[in-house]
């Protein structure tokens, strides 16, 4: 019997992690072959790389423009791979890159699945019909998302994979803090100097800096230790300082006292504020909770302010019911295989 062949694309680190979990779930039960746009976790899961995500990964208007050439090359290779051997096309988030890919797959009668709903609830609300026309099925992480799409579109809530991570016992070490400046090089370049300045203002403390191994950093102070543990690096920390993104949701799930400090290129920020005026918060735990359970500082970051916040912040106790119950990845795998 021929293996089912999957074309999978992840354009940024959280998508790479999500895609790897999905491929592992599919591989555990079925005979598959997978190729696509990959990060290190998808490659470790056995996916043959058509293009490496690290070469084109960017977030934000200006940041994406700087990566235009590798993004176009990644897009070309993905579309070239859409031949009769592909049984399923799975594209994770990144709608500007992936909606045309999914649409092309659908036109070739290849079962096309979007994994992670575009944030149409935040901006570009009129895009729901475009998304619906572009794919056969959409797998949503949050419970309120399927209702945002046309009723005849197959959008299904599977839940968020962080719900699969059982609460872990914390052994807090006083004067220990965790730093999460980002998972892309431009985020490290933009956030880490400020995070290190913040750390320098907290006396008699040590810090764990969690970033992917392929990213570069300047020489770190003696009291800052680098790791690749992800959110687990904060289990012994008094509090965490992080960028906005999936990491803030992970830290909220672990109920770790967290301060969110995030900035982007000024033009990217101006565009975001223009189109997202109705959202009072930036960090997802605050959006889901409809209150500021994590102090968030956006764009104008002052180390003295962050240092004070980091030493006094309380556990968030966020409302995360929208992420659902454990089993999200397996539910997603089941909904993909049903049509494969």
Structure notes:
Helix content is 36%, strand content 18%. The two termini are 14 Å apart. The radius of gyration is 20 Å and the shape is globular. The longest helix has 17 residues, at 13-29. Strand 11, helix 8 and strand 12 form a beta-alpha-beta unit. It is of the alpha/beta class and 340 residues long. The mean pLDDT is 91. It has a seven-stranded parallel beta sheet, sandwiched between helices.
Mean pLDDT: 91
Question: H/E order of the elements?
Answer: EHEHEHHEHEHEEEHEEEHEHHEHH
Beta-strand content: 15-25%
Decide which structural class fits the backbone. alpha/beta
pLDDT < 50 runs, ≥5 residues: none
- End-to-end C-alpha gap: 14 Å
Number of helices: 12
Question: Which descriptors would you attach to this protein?
Answer:
12 helices, about 350 residues, globular, 7-stranded parallel beta sheet, alpha/beta, 6-stranded parallel beta sheet
List the helices and strands and how they pair.
Elements: E1 4-10, H1 13-29, E2 32-38, H2 40-44, E3 48-52, H3 61-66, H4 68-80, E4 88-92, H5 95-107, E5 111-115, H6 128-134, E6 137-140, E7 155-157, E8 176-180, H7 185-200, E9 206-210, E10 224-227, E11 239-242, H8 246-253, E12 258-262, H9 266-275, H10 284-289, E13 296-298, H11 303-312, H12 328-337
Parallel strand pairs: 1-2, 1-4, 2-3, 4-5, 5-6, 6-7, 8-9, 8-11, 9-10, 11-12, 12-13
Helix pairs in contact: 1-12, 7-11
């Amino acid at each position: 019997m021929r293996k089912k062949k999957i074309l999978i694309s992840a354009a940024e680190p959280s998508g790479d992690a999500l895609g790897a979990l999905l491929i592992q779930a599919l591989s555990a039960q079925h005979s598959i072959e997978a190729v696509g746009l990959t990060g290190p976790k998808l490659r470790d899961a056995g996916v043959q790389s058509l293009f490496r995500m690290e070469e084109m990964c960017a977030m934000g208007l200006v940041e994406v423009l700087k990566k235009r050439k590798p993004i176009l090359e990644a897009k070309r290779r993905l579309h070239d791979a859409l031949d009769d051997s592909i049984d399923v096309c799975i594209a994770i988030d990144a709608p500007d890159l992936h909606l045309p890919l999914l649409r092309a797959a659908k036109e070739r009668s290849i079962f096309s699945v979007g994994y992670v709903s575009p944030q149409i609830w935040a901006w570009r609300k009129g895009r729901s019909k475009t998304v619906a026309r572009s794919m056969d099925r959409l797998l949503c992480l949050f419970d309120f998302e399927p209702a945002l799409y046309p009723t005849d579109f197959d959008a299904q809530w599977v839940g968020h994979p962080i719900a699969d991570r059982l609460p872990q016992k914390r052994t807090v070490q006083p004067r220990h803090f965790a730093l999460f400046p980002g998972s892309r090089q431009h985020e490290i370049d933009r956030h880490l100097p400020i995070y290190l300045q913040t750390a320098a203002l907290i006396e008699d403390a040590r810090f764990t800096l969690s970033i992917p191994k392929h990213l570069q950093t300047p020489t770190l102070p003696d009291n800052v230790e680098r790791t690749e543990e992800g959110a687990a690096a904060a289990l012994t920390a008094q509090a965490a300082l992080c960028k906005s993104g999936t990491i803030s949701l992970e830290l909220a799930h672990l109920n770790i006292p967290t301060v969110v400090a995030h900035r982007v290129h000024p033009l990217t920020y101006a565009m975001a504020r223009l189109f997202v005026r109705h959202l009072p918060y930036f960090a997802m735990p605050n959006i889901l909770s409809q209150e500021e359970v994590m102090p968030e500082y956006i764009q104008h970051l002052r180390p003295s302010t962050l240092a004070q916040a980091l030493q006094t912040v309380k556990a968030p106790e966020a409302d995360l019911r929208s992420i659902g119950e454990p089993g999200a990845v397996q539910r997603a795998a089941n909904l993909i295989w049903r049509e494969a």
